[in-house]
TrEMBL record:
<dbReference type="Pfam" id="PF14226">
    <property type="entry name" value="DIOX_N"/>
</dbReference>
<dbReference type="GO" id="GO:0051213">
    <property type="term" value="F:dioxygenase activity"/>
</dbReference>
<dbReference type="Pfam" id="PF03171">
    <property type="entry name" value="2OG-FeII_Oxy"/>
</dbReference>
<feature type="domain" description="Fe2OG dioxygenase">
    <location>
        <begin position="218"/>
        <end position="317"/>
    </location>
</feature>
<dbReference type="InterPro" id="IPR027443">
    <property type="entry name" value="IPNS-like_sf"/>
</dbReference>
<protein>
    <recommendedName>
        <fullName>Fe2OG dioxygenase domain-containing protein</fullName>
    </recommendedName>
</protein>
<dbReference type="GO" id="GO:0046872">
    <property type="term" value="F:metal ion binding"/>
</dbReference>
<dbReference type="InterPro" id="IPR044861">
    <property type="entry name" value="IPNS-like_FE2OG_OXY"/>
</dbReference>
<dbReference type="InterPro" id="IPR026992">
    <property type="entry name" value="DIOX_N"/>
</dbReference>
<keyword id="KW-0408">Iron</keyword>
<keyword id="KW-0479">Metal-binding</keyword>
<dbReference type="InterPro" id="IPR005123">
    <property type="entry name" value="Oxoglu/Fe-dep_dioxygenase_dom"/>
</dbReference>
<keyword id="KW-0560">Oxidoreductase</keyword>
<comment type="similarity">
    <text>Belongs to the iron/ascorbate-dependent oxidoreductase family.</text>
</comment>
Amino acid sequence: MVITVAGESVTGNPTNYDRLQELKAFDDSKSGVKGLVDAGITKIPRIFVRPPEDLASHNPNSGEPTDTHFKIPVIDLEGRRADAIDGVRRAAEEVGFFQVVNHGMAERVLEEMLEAARGFHELPREVKAEYHTRELMKKVKFGSNFDLYKSRFANWRDSLFCVMGPDPLDPQELPLVCRDITIEYSNQVHKLGITLFEMLSEALGLKSDQLIGLECAKGHVILSHYYPACPEPELTMGTTQHSDPDFLTILLQDHNGGLQVFYQNRWIDVPPVPGALVVNIGDLLQLISNDRFRSVEHQVLANHMGPRVSIACFFTPHLYPSTIIYGPIKELLSEDNPPVYRETSVRDFVAYYDEKGLDGNSALTHFKLQKGGKEISELDLCLS
């Protein structure tokens, strides 16, 4: 079998398949999944094919049951505040996902952000290649699969990663095609994040500024994802099931759909709602809320149709130095509700998450305590 990676032929068959060589050829092309599509492939390279056991047990692209009755909650932020907070609380506790409407972000800004993200990913290869890097601390970078060399299979997705805070980003670091709108979008989505953290704080029975005081909204990262049309979507995924290594994620998605959340042992579609933004609880908010709020697994399906474009805003200081050590909030604890997690820094949590990669397992397990407050050992994790 001959596989084309961005115009280059890579041989791969059961007898001489060299996975590392193929991964490196793909990475070195600096053209991402879009480059494969532009090369006219009709079969996906083997690095993207899910393992046989995954395909046999779970194929969300063909016949996996989804709940057609349950709908992801939609919360009107212009409604009565007490009702909105109650809706946020129930969604955060039960589903971990909700959509918000009348959120204060202009429709023009949403449309222009999606258009600019698509514009970047459809630039010529040599232009995008200037931003291609796997350097950990680089503030603006283009790539495909942050865990490319760790994952069991690569996802059918390219991303532009932009660290917008806590330190100000020099606008000149952003690609010209999306520079102005990314800054405008960043400012507006940060304001919305502040509003949501205030509501989530009240939903926990805390003062409205308590989560803000814990610097949950101090930093944010904007990821512009691009999912090209896939010739064999049943063999791969747009994004493997995972939860997010942050406090909160606000997602802008186009009309193409494909996002699913795992709820009550089945996958639920998160359909695009015109003008709405998707909000989901992150791992770190589940940790500090001591499991009151849920950071649930979600995934994106690959599709024959495309491209799908989405903009994810992760509220996290990411890898920047911080003196704050996060653990379950003391006011939420009691004799009947002891701490579930050990304390950690954001840097250590993200480092563990990145090293682990998207393997379908929650990073939170690594930070759990046994009953009585003891740390769970690696042996305990293997036996559990």
